Structure prediction request, 342 residues.
Amino acid sequence: MSNFVRNPGHGPVTRFFPRWPVAFCVLFLLILILVGTLTRRPVHGADPQTFADSLLKATTEDPADKEQNKVAGPGWFWNLGPTGIRAMLVDASGKCEWEGKATCFLVKYVFPGSPADGKILPGDTIIGVNAKKFSTVYKLGYWFGIGYDGPPMEFGQAIEESESGKDGRLEIMVLRKEAPLTVTVQIESKGAFSATFPFNCQKSEQLVKEACAYLVKSQDKQGNWGTPDGNVDACLALLAQGPDYYKLVERHLDRSLGGIDRNTWNWELAMYSVLTSEYYLLTRNNRYWKHMLRFNDLFKDNQCPNTAPQKRLTHQAALSSASRSALAKTLSNERRVHLNGL
Prediction:
């Protein structure tokens, strides 16, 4: 038995594998990871420039942001926190870029009545903030860890600095018609996050309270907040705040779940599987149990080779797999309790 792998906690594994195939598989997996890292592509599988070009044509269906595309034209714009600025990541020449080249923001739109309104202008290039020029090119954080390295991270850190230690004064460094200047934008002073953030943190509690108030105010007559992912995020946020907000979540789910079918994008199916599972586990209300069973069947139907035209079904496979696993576990644990009554 010396040349077989054992599970030290539970005796021999059910199937025995000689050590050399295991070592070979581990080595092969490491090689695949290395090759994948060196040849990785950004979001949606496109090469960096193709994806950057697609951002120039993007528009938003989010009700809060639709106005920006009406005024500024198409484009995928970054939300620069509480300033009211919407901007595009560009390189030093002003060309829209994605990973590895973007070093500054090109301002495309400023919301009327926001702190930056009348101070920062469309066409301004933001090159730094709070007396510090952006020092790192943009890098999509989830490939390497947490965060969005580059101008988005540095701008966010400056907002935190201004909210906590500069009485809300945000000093934005811009190029306006190639001339450098610094513009002061006054944002609300909210103090600093506590050492135990997000717990026992006054600032966190204030931000959550403000976010919930916004979600309550902005839900439309159909129970929506915008895109499917935005709707699910809003519902999960409200669920986490307790029973006072459950009716808003139910208002959305009652109007949305019936439209999810075999033609629904798998990512959307995955998100609503998570949401309905969380709703059930929190409330023990079987209001959406039939939909959960139906989603489980849709996951099984949607599993297919990653080839056209079915490629849509396996997009974002990791999320779909995790969601299916969570949904199936919830169903299996609770099926005996509720299935007989449906």
